[in-house]
Amino acid sequence: MMMDAWRYDTAQDLDHTLLERLRRCPREPDMLVYGLRALAALGIRAWLRVYHHLKVIGREHLRAEGSYVLVANHASHLDTLSLLSVLPLQKLHRAFPAAAADYFFTSVPRITVAAVIVNALPFDREVHFRQSLALCRALLANQGNILIIFPEGTRSVTGAIGPFKPGVGLLLAGTDVPVLPCHIDGAFEAWPKGRLLPRPGRLRLVIGAPRNYAALPPGKGSALQICHELREAVLDLAAMHRMSR
Amino acid sequence: MSPNAALQSDVFRLYLLVVGALLATAGGVLGVLTWGLRKNVQQVWVTYRGWLIMAPAVMGCILVGREATLFGWTLLAIFGMKEFARATGLYTDWWMTGTVYLAIAAISVATLMADPFTGHPGWFGLFMSLPVFVVATILLLPILRNRTQGQLQTISLAIVGFLYIGWMFGHLAFLANSNHPYGYLLYVILAVELSDVAAFTSGKLFGRHQLRSQISPNKTWEGALGALAVSMALPWILGFSFPHFGPVQRVLTGLIVGVGGQLGDLSISVIKRDLGIKDMGAVIPGHGGILDRIDSLIYVAPLFLHMVDYFYGLR
C-alpha cells in the first residue's frame, strides 16, 4: 500500500541556463530578480522625477485589476521607463513591455537589463511574429497582466509619431481587453535614438481613457481601423496637453 | 586561516600542487583521447572546463581565509537551496523559502562567530542545536499565517531542505574552524570529487551490473567498487593532510568517503527521480546544478567531522 503521491510544482525552466531563463517569457518568478527589479525601479523613479521632472496626467485611468494594454508613441528608451514608473511596484513583475527580440535579446548585457529591470517580452518583429502575438494574447488572457506596446515598432528618429504597425490591432480586435492610449512628450529631446546618455529635460506622460474593441470582428480590416483610431487618440492626447516650452 | 598562513602551510601548498597536477593530467589525457585516438569526448571537455573554474574558485576561497570560505559556502548553500526549492515547488511559497534562506544564514553566523564559552572560532553548540530552532520556526509559519492547505508538504520540504543543504552541508564549512582546516577541508573536497570521478571512469570501463536500477540506471556496482577502492587508498596517498590519523581513522575516512559519497549521490537521485527531473539545474555546464555537484559532499562532510571530533576533538 502506497501513500498518495504528492503533487510537486516543479519550475518549468529547471533545465535552462541562466541566460535561457532570462530570455524566455513569461519567466518563472524569482526572488532575486524581483528584488533587483524593485530596487532598480525605485532608482529609476527617483531619477525620472529629479532629472526629468516627470509629470503624469490621467493616472486615474490605470486600473487596479484585470489585464490591460498600454499603447504609446515611441522616440526614446525613456518612454518605457516612464510608463513603468506609473505602475504600483508590485504590479511591475506583471507588466511586460514588448521589446524587439532582434535588438534587446541579442547580447548578454541587453538581455540582462531587458529581462531583469524592464521585464521585457521578446517580440519577434519578423520571423516568429505569429508566436509573439500568441504570447501576448496568452498573457492578456491571464488576469492582472499589463502589456506595454509601442505600435510604431521602433523609436522615431525625428520625434514625430510614425504610422502604427497592425500587430496591436490584430491583438485587440474582438477582445474586451481595455487599451489605454498614452502620449509621452519630451523624451525625444532628452534621450533620442543614437545618444549614449540622456540629458536633463522635462517629461510629460498623458494617459488616456480606456477603450476596447470587443465589437470589431477579428481580422486585418479591424486591425487597420484600430491602429488608425489608436494613433488618432495618441495625437489627440498630444494636442490636448501641448507642453509649453 | 589567512593568505599568509595558507602559503606557509605545507598542506595547502601540497594541495595546490596536487590539484594543479590532476587538472593538467586530466587535460593531457583528454587531449590524447581527442586528438590522438580521435575519440568523441566533447561532453567530457565541457565537464573538464567546469572543473577548471570550480577548482581555482574553491582553492581561492580557502586561500583567502575562513571568512571567504564561509562566504563561498553560504552562496553555494543558498543557491543550492534555491535549486531544491525550484525543483520541488517549495519555491512557490516565498515565505517558507525565505525562512530557510535565513536559517542557512544563521548556520553561517554560528560558524563564523566565536564560541562565547571557550573563545574558539565557531560556536559548535549553537551550530549543532540550530535545527531545533529552525524546525520550530518552520512549524510556526503556517500557524502565524493561519493556513492548513498543503502545509504538511511545505513544512516537510522546508525541513528536509534546511537539514540537508543548510545543516548537513554546513558541517563542511565548520571544518574551517578545526585545528587542521587545510588538511580536513581540502581532503574531504578532493577525495569526494576524486571518488566521483573514479566511479564515473570505472563504471564506463567495466560497468555491467546496475547498482540501483530504479534510482539511477547509469550507476553500476563496478563503478561503486572502483570508487570505494580509490577512496580506501586516498587516506594513505594524501596522508599528509592528517598525519595524526592512525590506521583505524584512515580506514574510517576511506569508508566515509567511498560509501557515503555514493549514498549522497544516490539520495539526490531518489529526489530527482521522484520529481521526474534529470538535473537539479543547469548553472554549471557539464555538471548540471549546484546540488548535482555537491550531493556527495553533503553526505560525507558531517560524517567526517563527527568522526574527527570523536577521536581527536575539532580543536
Please tell me about this protein's structure.
- The complex is a heterodimer of chains A (245) and B (315).
- Chain A is α/β, with parallel strands linked by helices and 245 residues long.
- Chain A has a single domain (18-243), classed as Glycerol-3-phosphate (1)-acyltransferase (3-Layer(aba) Sandwich).
- Chain A contains nine helices and seven strands.
- Chain A has a seven-stranded mixed sheet, with helices on both faces.
- In chain A, α2 (31-52) crosses α3 (77-85).
- The longest helix of chain A has 22 residues, at 31-52.
- Chain A is globular, with a radius of gyration of 19 Å.
- The mean pLDDT of chain A is 91.
- Chain B folds into two domains: 1-64; 65-311, no CATH class.
- Chain B has helices at residues 3-8, 10-36, 42-64, 66-88, 94-112, 124-145, 151-174, 181-206, 221-237, 247-275, 290-311.
Features:
heterodimer; A: 245 residues; alpha/beta; Glycerol-3-phosphate (1)-acyltransferase; seven-stranded mixed beta sheet; 9 helices; 7 strands; B: 315 residues; mainly alpha; 2 domains; 76% helix
The gist of it:
The complex is a heterodimer of chains A (245) and B (315). In chain A, 39% of the residues lie in helices and 13% in strands.
The beta-strand count of chain B equals 0
CATH classification, class level of chain A: Alpha Beta
Q: CATH superfamily name of chain A? A: Glycerol-3-phosphate (1)-acyltransferase
Quaternary form: heterodimer
Largest interface: A-B, 14 and 21 residues
Number of strands of chain A: 7
What is the mean predicted local confidence, pLDDT of chain B?
A: 94
Chain-wise SSE layout:
The complex is a heterodimer of chains A (245) and B (315).
Chain A: H1 18-23, H2 31-52, E1 55-57, E2 68-72, H3 77-85, E3 95-100, H4 101-104, H5 108-117, E4 121-123, H6 129-141, E5 146-149, H7 167-172, E6 179-185, H8 187-190, E7 204-207, H9 220-240
Parallel strand pairs in A: 1-7, 2-5, 2-6, 3-4, 3-5
Antiparallel strand pairs in A: 6-7
Helix pairs in contact in A: 2-3
Chain B: H1 3-8, H2 10-36, H3 42-64, H4 66-88, H5 94-112, H6 124-145, H7 151-174, H8 181-206, H9 221-237, H10 247-275, H11 290-311
Helix pairs in contact in B: 2-3, 2-8, 3-4, 4-5, 4-7, 5-6, 5-7, 6-7, 7-11, 8-9, 8-10, 8-11, 9-10, 10-11
